Amino acid sequence: MPAAVEAAGAGRDARVELMPSKGLIVAMLAMGGLLTLLGAAGLIAISIGRETGDSLVAMVVVLVMGGALELIVLPMLLSPRPVVVADARGLHYLPRLGKGESFAWSDLAAIGYVRAGKHTGLGLWMRDREAWIATQPGWQQPLLRVGKFLSRSDRRLSVFCTGGAIREFAASVAQRFPVECRE
Q1: CA-CA distance, 157 to 125, in Å (whole number)?
Q2: Does residue 154 sit in helix, strand or coil?
Q3: How far apart are CA 131 and CA 89, in angstroms?
Q4: How far apart are the C-alpha atoms of 105 and 131, rounded to whole Å?
Q5: 18 and 93 in contact (C-beta within 8 Å)?
Q6: pTM for this one?
Q7: Which helix (H) or strand (E) holds 18?
Q8: Do 94 and 162 touch, CB atoms closer than 8 A?
Q9: Which residue of 53, 91, 161, 182 lies most exposed, with the fewest beta carbons within 10 A?
Q10: What are the distances in angstroms from CA 162 to CA 26, 75, 90, 98?
C-alpha cells in the first residue's frame, strides 16, 4: 500500500485513510520559497532604484503569494493528517481549510479517481442523486443538476494527492465497505 493510503483494523472496525502526498507538499513549498525569493529580490532591486512604478505592486503581490503558499502548505508537512477517512460510519472529508463533510455508506454508490482539466480529486457518486441534491444549499442545486448532464461525479473532493494514491484509496475502500470503485 502506498504511503498516502493507510489501513487499520479488520472487519467492521476497519479504517482507511488518504494522506496528502509528501512529494506534492515539498514541490508546493519549493514553489512558495521561489516566489518569496523573487518577490524579495524584486523589492531589493526597487529599493536601490533599478525598477519603478508598477514593479513595486507586482513584487509585493509575488512576495505575499509566496508567503501565503508556504503558510498554507508548511503545516501539511510538519503535522500530516488524513484528508479523507473511511470507517464503519461512512466517508469523512477533513480538509485543512474549509468545512469538512461526512457521507454515510447508505448514501454512496461509488467512489473513485476523477479528473477535470488539470485538477484531480476523489469523486463520489450518490445512490439517489436527486435526493442528495435536494439536501444541498439552494444556490448549489442548479450547478449540481447541470453536472449531472455532463456525466460528472456527484461530488468531487479536493485532495492533495497523486492520482495513483486516490485510485489505491478507492480500491481499498471498495474492498472493505459497501461501495463500488469507479474510474
Answers
A1: 11
A2: coil
A3: 20
A4: 15
A5: no
A6: 0.75
A7: strand 15-18
A8: no
A9: 53
A10: 13, 19, 23, 21
pLDDT tens, residue by residue, 40-61: 888 887 777 765 666 777 888 8
C-alpha cell at 169: 484509496
Residue pLDDT, tens place only, 87-96: 999 999 988 7
Q: At what angle do helices 22-47 and 54-78 cross, to 10 degrees?
A: 150
What is 41-103 written as a DSSP string? Answer: HHHHHHHTTS--THHHHHHHHHHHHHHHHHHHHHHHHHS---SEEEETTEEEE--SSS--EEE
Task: State yes or no: pLDDT of 138 exceeds 50.
Answer: yes
Q: Name the strands in the sheet holding 108-116, side by side, starting at the edge strand that comes first in the sequence.
A: 155-157, 119-126, 108-116, 180-182
Local structure of residue 4 (DSSP, 8 states): T
